[in-house]
Specification:
This is Large ribosomal subunit protein bL27. It comes from Candidatus Yanofskybacteria bacterium RIFCSPHIGHO2_02_FULL_50_12. One of its GO terms (biological process) is translation. Helices cover 0% and strands 42% of the residues. It has strands at residues 22-23, 30-31, 36-39, 45-47, 51-53, 59-61, 65-75, 81-91.
Length: 92
């Protein structure tokens, strides 16, 4: 006897959920303690003052205030320099 029924079987239907990554609060917006500022994979944005970095590289506010994005040069272990964006929360 046939292993499956005579009707066609679908090999699709195993799609994963979207990750919803990106910047959640833009420059100048108000952030409360624990507000998520950036969801990311790796450190595209690096944490500055008033923020913390989660285990999944999520940047969230540690103090209440306004979000401020700045840039700075960062030197890697191999001596290569790159321009990185720093996420800060400035207290009111």
């Amino acid at each position: 006897m046939a292993h499956t029924k005579a009707i066609g079987t679908s090999r699709n239907g195993r799609d994963s959920q979207p990750q919803y990554l990106g910047v959640k609060l833009s420059d100048g917006q108000a952030a409360n303690i624990g507000s998520i500022i950036v969801r990311q994979r790796g450190t595209k944005f690096i944490p500055g003052s008033g923020v913390r970095l989660g285990t999944d590289y999520t940047i969230y506010a540690a103090v209440a205030g306004k979000v401020k994005f700045t840039t700075k040069r960062k030197t890697g272990y191999n001596g290569a320099r790159r321009l990185v964006t720093v996420a800060n929360v400035v207290p009111n």
